[in-house]
């Protein structure tokens, strides 16, 4: 195995011409390993079990770990040479790393993290900023920058990072790979340097969704279970409005892929600002002094602020003594945050705990066991190296508003690449309830290929911006119709569904939903016609068959109902 690993690095070196490349355009040296690695090493898996026992589940895979994971005999560097200088070599290997090695994978190195794993930018002045393989002129994202780059550049099959406020999700998005933040607390933190104990989660990078699934099952020690399909996929409309690229570049891909696998009837729309405002009352309690009169701070913005304050407070509680005694040279932006006076009263700490509890309950209640929440991973595409915009208030507010949802609630999230826009990687994120990790990984495995196909199609599409906007407006009208239907305002619901049909006339769900409202009014001929149209558009629309059966029975068309194989029911069918 030792010679195999050595040959691997030789081949990789040859594949990159085995030299240091110098690009005049970038005015920076690109290392043969893209600056991803701090240290090369080799942890070999145990021998394969004798037949008839199955081989190790991660056989033939290799991986790297961020410089926050302990490996016996090596100093865990935490992204800073002064940390290395003032700490001893680890006496034990992190249980997470051991579990993967014992599962058959080979660990081949440690990768660069941001200074003290604190930032989400991916820059490190001490060891150099890893080169983003998908956009070399742009930042790779952090804190687990090297781990993302190692996967994006095909040096390893997967890698481990730490995600506090986006430490895995941001570099995954910026480097165009899959990034998985598991539910808080389901993966051991033993043998890992903490950043913020209530927010930290071990994260995973991969390019192949099947590898992500294989490693995820080992990492989470999940038992076998029957795969379940989502019954609702919620699009967070207000979150997509934060995007700095056309939001339909992402939304249309998700809508099209969902329709292909599960039917568009599972798509719903949600405004998370309004939802969290009503379900997480402790947010306003924490920031009561900042809300005066008509001046309102959005719940998403409050959530972002709480997450940043929590990270800063817990980081200082853990590492302030070392910083004060060793006086390390810190990046000015990190130093400013760490050294800022931050006194939290016991009451404020308790309110933060209440916010975490309320957030988890809120997201779990929204998604239940079979829901997926869809949001942009990041509001911004990867910015240029050295850009001052990463320090702007808008950048931080938009980025952390999205990233704090999973960080505070502790729910699981996967970042998925969706091709490119203006030569920069595009991504989307799926979130499932806390503990819904297997459901989330299964959903990703099901949808990944079609997401990539539709991303390519949408990127090449000649559709005008107006045409895409019409489809989004149709979805909004449908949601208004659904709400009117729930409120038993049948005629109003029909008006909204009709508006949706005028905007997008080839959507079976719109016709099927309008038929449901017609049934409530006793307009059976119109209901039967709408259901037939829905079935012609989508042969898998079960609700349309059921509703047509009801309409035909009420019209006395028993023979047609039976010949159509429709289940006749006198009861209304839920939207």
From TrEMBL:
Gene3D superfamilies: Amidase signature (AS) domain (3.90.1300.10), Tetratricopeptide repeat domain (1.25.40.10)
Domain Amidase: residue ranges: 55-208
SMART domains: TPR
Source organism per UniProt: Durio zibethinus
Membrane-spanning intervals of the chain: 6-23
Keywords from the UniProt entry: Membrane, Transmembrane, Transmembrane helix
Membrane in keyword set: yes
Protein name according to UniProt: Outer envelope protein 64, chloroplastic-like isoform X3
């Amino acid at each position: 195995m030792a010679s195999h690993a050595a040959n691997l690095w030789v081949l990789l070196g040859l594949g990159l011409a085995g030299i240091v490349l110098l690009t005049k355009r970038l005015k920076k040296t690109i290392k043969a390993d893209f600056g991803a690695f701090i240290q090369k090493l080799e942890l070999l898996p145990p021998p394969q079990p004798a037949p008839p026992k199955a081989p190790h589940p991660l056989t033939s895979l290799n991986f790297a770990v961020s410089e926050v994971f302990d490996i016996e005999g090596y100093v865990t560097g935490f992204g800073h040479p002064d940390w290395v200088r003032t700490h001893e070599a680890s006496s034990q290997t992190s249980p997470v790393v051991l579990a993967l090695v014992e599962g058959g994978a080979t660990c081949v190195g440690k990768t660069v993290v941001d200074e003290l794993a604190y930032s989400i930018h991916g820059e490190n002045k001490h060891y150099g900023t890893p080169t983003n393989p998908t956009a070399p002129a742009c930042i790779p994202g952090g804190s687990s920058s090297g781990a993302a780059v190692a996967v994006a550049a095909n040096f390893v099959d997967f890698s481990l990072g730490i995600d506090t406020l986006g430490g895995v999700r941001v570099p995954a998005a910026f480097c165009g790979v899959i990034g998985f933040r598991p539910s808080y607390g389901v993966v051991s933190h033993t043998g890992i340097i903490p950043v913020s104990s209530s927010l930290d989660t071990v994260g995973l990078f991969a390019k192949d969704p099947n590898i992500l699934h294989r490693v995820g099952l080992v990492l989470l020690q999940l038992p076998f279970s029957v795969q379940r399909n989502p019954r609702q996929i919620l699009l967070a409309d207000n979150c997509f409005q934060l995007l700095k690229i056309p939001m339909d570049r992402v939304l249309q891909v998700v809508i099209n892929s969902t329709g292909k696998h599960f039917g568009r009837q599972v798509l719903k729309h949600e405004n998370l600002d309004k939802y969290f405002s009503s379900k997480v009352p402790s947010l306003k309690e924490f920031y009561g002094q900042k809300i005066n009169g008509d001046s309102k701070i959005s719940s998403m913005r409050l959530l972002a602020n709480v997450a940043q304050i929590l990270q800063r407070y817990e980081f200082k509680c853990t590492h302030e003594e070392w910083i004060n005694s060793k006086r390390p040279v810190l990046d000015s932006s990190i130093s400013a945050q760490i050294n800022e006076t931050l006194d939290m009263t016991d009451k404020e700490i308790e309110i933060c705990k209440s916010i975490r509890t309320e957030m988890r309950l809120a997201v779990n209640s929204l998604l239940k066991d079979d829901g997926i929440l869809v949001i942009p991973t990041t509001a911004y595409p990867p910015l240029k190296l050295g850009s001052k915009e990463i320090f702007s208030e808008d950048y931080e507010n938009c980025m952390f508003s999205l990233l704090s949802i999973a960080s505070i609630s502790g729910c699981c999230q996967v970042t998925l690449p969706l091709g490119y826009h203006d030569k920069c990687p595009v991504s989307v994120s799926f979130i499932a309830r806390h503990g819904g990790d297997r459901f989330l990984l299964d959903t990703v495995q099901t949808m990944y290929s079609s997401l990539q196909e539709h991303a390519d199609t949408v990127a090449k599409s000649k559709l005008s911006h107006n045409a895409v906007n019409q489809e989004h407006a149709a979805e909004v009208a449908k949601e208004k119709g659904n709400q009117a239907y729930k409120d038993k305002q049948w005629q109003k619901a029909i008006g909204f569904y009709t508006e949706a049909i005028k905007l997008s006339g080839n959507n079976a769900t719109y016709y099927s939903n309008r038929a449901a409202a017609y049934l409530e009014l006793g307009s059976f001929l119109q209901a039967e016609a709408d259901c037939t149209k829905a079935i012609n558009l989508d042969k898998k629309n079960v609700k349309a068959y059921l509703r047509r059966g009801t309409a035909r029975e009420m019209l006395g068309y028993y023979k047609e109902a039976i010949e159509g194989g429709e289940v006749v029911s006198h009861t209304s069918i839920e939207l």
